[in-house]
Amino acid sequence: MAQQLQPTTVDSDWLYPESDGKPLSDNTIQFRIITTLQGGIDTLFADDPNVFVAGDLLWYPVRAVDGRSKSQTPDVMVVFGRPKGDRRSYKQFEEDNIPPQVVFEILSQSNTEEEMEKKFNFYEGYGVEEYYLYDPATNELKGWLKHNNKLRPIDKMEGWRSPRLGCRFETLKGSLALYRPDGQRMETYVETSLRAELEAQRAELQTKLAQQEAQRAQQEAKARRDAIPRLLALGLSVEQVAQALNLSVEEVNQSY
User: For residue 29, what are the contacts with CB-CB under 8 A and spacing of at least 6?
Assistant: First the structure.
């Protein structure tokens, strides 16, 4: 069950809205990439209670001043060092002042250069260590890595491995793909569901085959036992019967 974190301040809720009034995505492609990244990264760190992964969640780095608050809504953000759990927003000043270390933005036609520059400056100014920007329309992937408190561009993103996530990035097949440290590609919900269904069918088939093999072995063993008296009645020795039926002498002796 997801943990519901309780606020530690008495700030008024209206100072920190839960929504920026914008949709999660502008199109199905953007939505699919966002949900695949969020779900895949969350699954990757499912066993680590202190990795928080969110999609389209407002991030407030500092307390509101004079009734005004600063925020951004990364498409996907990853916070190492904070517990999992439901949040209405990510108030960094209530989270041991730990900023999201990894942030993803997936571009759409509605994004402007001015907007993306503002986001970049925000992420750089408030402590993001890895920032990834992907444009599905052009299949272009850009990345920046924190160095001396500045986000510096990553020269080559194809095959890049995230220091924090341990994941490898690829765009060779015409879309953004992340590969887990074990080499498995992060899948969409549909792909994961289909694979789980196929694995369940395969397991069911293997169970049936094992049952059939067990029944066949039992039938063969019974046939051998039933043949022992008939062969002995024909005058064969115990040793000859054992050799003919591929049994031990002890098994033959125990069967009559």
Answer: 136
- Other C-beta atoms lying within 10 Å of the C-beta of residue 178: 21
> Are 145 and 26 members of one domain?
yes
**Which of 136, 161, 187 is a domain's end point?**
187
- For residues 144 and 151, is the Cβ–Cβ distance under 8 A? yes
Q: What is the pLDDT of residues 45-85, one digit of tens each?
A: 999 999 999 999 999 999 998 778 899 999 999 999 999 99
| Adjacent-strand bridge partners of 147 | 150
Give residue-wise pLDDT tens across range 112-137. Answer: 999 999 999 999 999 999 999 999 99
Answer for the pair 25, 108: CB distance below 8 angstroms, yes or no: yes
Cα(first)–Cα(last) distance of the chain, in Å?
61
Q: Between 28-44 and 189-233, two packed helices, what is the crossing angle to 10 degrees?
A: 60
Residue 155 is encoded by which pair of tokens? 């020269």
Burial bucket for residue 70 (CB in 10 Å: 0-12, 13-18, 19+): middle
Tokens of 145: 């890595």
Euclidean distance between CA atoms 176 and 143, whole angstroms: 13
Residue in 211, 168, 153, 155 with CA at minimum distance from that of residue 44: 168
Cα separation, 100 vs 61, in Å, equals: 10
CATH value at residue 80: 3.90.1570.20
For the chain, give the longest Cα–Cα distance: 108
Report yes or no on 57 lying in a domain: yes
CA gap 110, 132 in Å, rounded? 18
Q: In 3D, which of 117, 143, 149 has the Cα closest to residue 130?
A: 143
